Amino acid sequence: MKNNATPIIVFAAALLLILSCGMFTVNQIEQTVITRLGEPVKVIKTPGLHFKIPFLDTVAFFDKRLMSVELSALEVTLGDKRRIMVDAFGRYRITDPLKFYQSVGDESGVLIRLNSVVLGSLSSVLGGVSLSSLLSDTRISAMNKIRDEVNKAAKSFGIEVVDVRIRKTDLPSQNSEAICKRMMSEREREARELRAKGIEMSKIIKSTADKENSIALAEANTRVQILIAEGELEANKIYTEAFSKDKNFFEFFQSLNAYRSAFGSKNSTFVISPKNEFFSVMKGRII
Prior knowledge:
By secondary structure, the protein is of the alpha+beta class. Helix content is about 55%, strand content about 20%. The strands form three sheets. Strands 6, 7, 8 and 9 form a four-stranded antiparallel sheet that branches. The chain has a three-stranded antiparallel sheet with strand order 3-2-5, with helices on one face. Helix 3 (about 110-125) packs across helix 5 (about 140-155).
């Protein structure tokens, strides 16, 4: 009995192995292409449990979701003859898995096929756009045009390109160096102009201050002279009023002042008659 049961167990195990090899599941985010000996025979897009011929059929799985592809950087000449480096990316989904399998093979081959298409479209479209337009809101229409051109070419790959975007733009290295040098020269020129203006303003401020100082000193001196003259006038007025009360004392005082002025120098010499009124005080004729 035991010997008769062994073939049955072996047959059942082999059958289970064959059945397990012939079953596979497709989830909601997948779609498949079944190939038999390398030739595609069936496309499955519905999720669930499915069957294939064991050892003859091969199942290739493809994602239904939106996927991204990083594109190579490209140097582009714009419509205003400026050259820039463009770093772009695209987003796509697989709409025809059979065509995708036949033309691309797998998802890793998308970059090779899309890269040339996108970069060619970027060159042709951006060649008619200026840098100022590319940096403004009008770039949206240019990007939409690039997307439409790429999507039209990508249909032959079994994919739909839903978006193409420029991540960043930059100047080529030689342009960057030239711009840096030009900016440095511009900053140096501005610095020279600012220094020249500063020196000019300094001279104006100094000359204005010197002028105002001279005017202030002149006005002060004038005021001093006026005050001195007014003081002397007031003193003379006081002297006149005081001396008018005693004529003899006034003449005596005036004579003393004259003697002080005349004999103040040690080497004074006079050629004058002794009878002159100048010596009247010395002779006691006034007091």
